[in-house]
Protein: IGFBP N-terminal domain-containing protein
Amino acid sequence: MDTILPCLLFLAALVAATSALQCAPCNEATCTPPPPGCELGTRVCSCCHECRVKEQHACGPFSPECESHLVCFTNQGVFVGRPPWSSSAQGRCIKYADVPVGSTAGHMIGRSVFGRK
Structure:
C-alpha cells in the first residue's frame, strides 16, 4: 500500500514529461510565403515553410533546420538538421568537413555525420 502513491506520482510525472510539447493543429495556420531561392525547412511545431539556416548562422531546437549540406555544431554535440526540441543546445550551422576532430555526435536525424569518408 505504501508503494502505490509513489508509483502513481512517478507515472503522472512520466506522462507530463512525455507530453510537454503539444503542437497546435495546422488547419488554421496562415503562412507567409518564404523568399524565393532558399532551401525550405520548418521549425518545431510550425506549419509553415521558411528558409533553412545558412552556414555560420545560429541554430537551436526551435530554429529552422540547417541547410541540408550543413550540421548544427553545439557544445552538446553535432546534429543533422537541428538539435531535438528537448535539448537546450545552441550552436552554429557548419559544413560536415569543418566539424572538429573529436567532436561527439548528438542526436542524428536521418544519417550519421561521422560516417563520412
Observations:
- The helical segments are 4-18.
- The first strand starts at residue 40 and ends at 41.
- Confidence is low (pLDDT under 50) at residues 14-19, 107-117.
